[in-house]
Design a protein that fits this description.
With 87 residues, the protein is mainly α. Helices cover 40% and strands 0% of the residues. It is extended. The chain starts with 9 loop residues before the first helix and ends with a helix.
């Protein structure tokens, strides 16, 4: 990568080091403003959420809403237990 003669920050230098270690030579171009391009930016709200409506994270299995921070912490711990049991 040609960087010219400007001084580089430590963040840029660390990114360049990691990119070199991983063999990254160039980055993919980001979204374009031209709608005819294959990688144009999406402004259509119908396409913005491909997963549909996600369930509320603070709703109990019985359908009741969580009202206290203590119960929210219990739900968080149960969620972590469920995640770690899958690994």
């Amino acid at each position: 990568m040609n960087l010219g003669k400007r001084p580089l920050s430590i963040l840029v230098l660390s990114w360049l080091y990691i990119a070199d270690q991983l063999g990254i030579k160039a980055l993919r171009a980001g979204p374009r403003g031209n709608e005819k391009d294959s990688n144009h930016a999406n402004y259509d709200e119908a396409k913005a959420n491909p997963y549909g409506d996600l369930p509320d994270a603070l709703t109990l299995k019985s359908g009741q809403k969580v009202t206290s921070a203590e119960r929210a912490a219990m739900i968080g711990k149960a969620h972590l237990r469920a995640l770690w049991s899958l690994i």
